Amino acid sequence: MLELYSEQTKCLVALDSIIFGFDGSKLKLLLVKRGIEESKNVWSLMGGWLQPNEGLDQAANRILENQTGLQNVYLEQVNTFGAPDRDPVERTVSVTYFALINVADYDLFNTKAEQAKWFDFDDLPELLFDHEQMVKNAIQRLRNKAAFHPLGFELLPEKFTLPQLQVLYEAIFDMPFDKRNFSRKILSSGLLTKLDEKQKGFSKKGAYLYKLNSQTSEKAASSILYFVPSIDSLL
């Protein structure tokens, strides 16, 4: 029995994170230079290696914290990439995750990566290896989840306005929403708590601030929330 193990070819396992951010107007992707890119115009996803004493989720969280200094970040496994020639250096299987970060929470000057930069999702540079396909898979997963569950709130500050929330979902789905219809649906979901505060500095009247209602969010996460007109149109 043990001979079956010893006869197998060993391969490396990498964890690569597709880190989405939102700056209040656009969906962004955090990319880094890891020193393995042959061209200065090629960027990489943030990642690292699985250690012998770790599970996959544990390793993904460790790598993200080591690279960004952030803890308790929303992190979800997306896919596995294992083409024999995907990494020209060594046979490597990569398990991908997507992470959701409020851009304001992440200080680029504190990263341990040699270079780190937020890129607008609609203006990405050339990516290393098969990272472009990883990103495509991750954005599709993000859209599928955000269409039915209150996932997008991870990208917002604790307090936000309805216009800010609508801009976020328009950025995620790359499509406009009818203002009145979006507000009606989101308010009827019971997800939000209206605060006795208004956003200052943007208009004379100001827009009321809201926050996620933690008492209803868990219940809503298990039900269908029609935030978008039709998820089929995005597939």
From TrEMBL:
InterPro entries named in the record: NUDIX_hydrolase-like_dom_sf, NUDIX_hydrolase_dom, WH-like_DNA-bd_sf, WH_DNA-bd_sf, WHD_NrtR
Domain Nudix hydrolase: from-to ranges: 12-142
Lineage: superkingdom: Bacteria
SUPFAM superfamilies: Nudix, Winged helix' DNA-binding domain
Protein name: DNA mismatch repair protein MutT
